[in-house]
Amino acid sequence: MSAPIIGIDLGTTNSCVAILENGVAKVLTNAVGDRTTPSMLALREDGKLVVGAVARRQAVSNPTRTLFGVKRLIGRRHDAPEVAELAGVVPFPIVRGPNGDAWVRLGDKVLSPSEVSAHVLGDLRATAETYLGQKVTQAIITVPAYFDDAQRQATRDAGRIAGLEVRAIINEPTAAALAYGVHKEGAPSLIAVFDLGGGTFDISILRIEDGVFEVLATSGDTLLGGDDFDRVLAVALRKEAEAAHGAPITDPVALQRLVDAAERAKRELSALASTEVQLPFLATGGAQGSGALSFQRTVTRAWLEELTASLLERLEAPCMRALADCRLEADRIDHVVLVGGMTRMPAVEARAAAIFGKRPVKGVNPDEIVAIGAATQSAIMQGQMGDVVLLDVASHSIGVKVAGGRFSTIIARNSMVPARETKVFTTTSDGQDFVSIEVYQGEEPMAAKNRLLGKFILGDLPHAPAGKVKVEVQFTLDCDGIVRVEARDLGSGKATSKKILASSGLSAEEVDRLAKGYVLGT
Questions:
Q1: Which of 371, 391, 438, 453 has the highest CB neighbour count under 10 A?
Q2: Does domain 5-170+509-517 have CATH number 3.30.420.40?
Q3: What is the pTM of this model?
């Protein structure tokens, strides 16, 4: 019997684990009887680290020692604008790590996002081991389609720290499409997977035909998710509470209670037209000695939709970009599949229907379909579904820095992987005897605004006037996101090459050290 490969949806808000059982993907129930696990890590007063529902229970009473939404930080630099924005709204400290990345402080510990994610992955691994009655060491983990290579590598490192060999990293919408379409037969279909989770929004367009799942285009917004909807409502509630209190509300516990109440109200408004927010003894010591504030407010679905109108509008642009990239009109899409808990919000479903001109597919669980797809991919990898083929694309363009600091694309986003492309460049100054090859990933016209993947030198070029020496640069991108670059002087034939592995910010030695010292709950 081959070793099991579990499928994991490592989410911003909640995570899920599935296995393949008798040829069918099965979502597993965790130790507290739930099919999803909150992606949260907390430090208890006794110094013990706890994960999931146990961590969530102390989020209100001890917000500065409870981590959530850390997936939004994974693979990001501390000086990135999106990190500064997040640091202004979460109760726990976001600090600069020794490598310049965004890390978090938990009590007297400073942790990388990969370490935090490792604890969530370790809990999911334990769930699978309990069910299977055997050790689990291999996993397929899903990520947002619009994650760049550094974020994907940081996710791989999280798996390694948790004792898992990550057999593959696959895109969440692609996994959802596998789960949805793998057993369906009939005419070829064009599928739009509309994935709005807790922290990110992804849209992928796929063609499914005779067991071949071909990703045509993908796009997204890594700063748009359910957390943002919660935050907008929480800010509105806070303003009203402060007006009633006559003073600012700054206590971390009170602020976390507002966020918690906003999330709960948002969930209830998916089924109800209105709900009540009741927060007794929210704050004390108001203006003119007003004393304790007990805040109560009726929240309607219409008000929530009004508050979040700008967030709902942001859903359209990535969809249009993905359709344009694969040269399709919205009316060509046969099925729209909703993924992620936020798609339960009626206004989100209505927006998806308006964009594509058809009602989304019902009958799939948006919280579980990605994990099911990851488990399905494990069956494909193990040869149990030999008639199913997955063809994916590059989520971001890859290219080099050229004269003037501009970014020259060599492998364009949404190119099918594996991919190989070549471009010829010339020297830019007289007597130039070397070229520096700086490899970037992104879509910005200026290289410095994209993600630097690596750099190397092709030297000993012949002395010649500017523009006379021609250098051919060839890029190869494989399915695991590994870039191989070869630069060759077309005159002399001199060449150099480099394999560029995305960095999570942690060195291989650091990952190994963390993996050796990793124990769940410590």
A1: 371
A2: yes
A3: 0.89
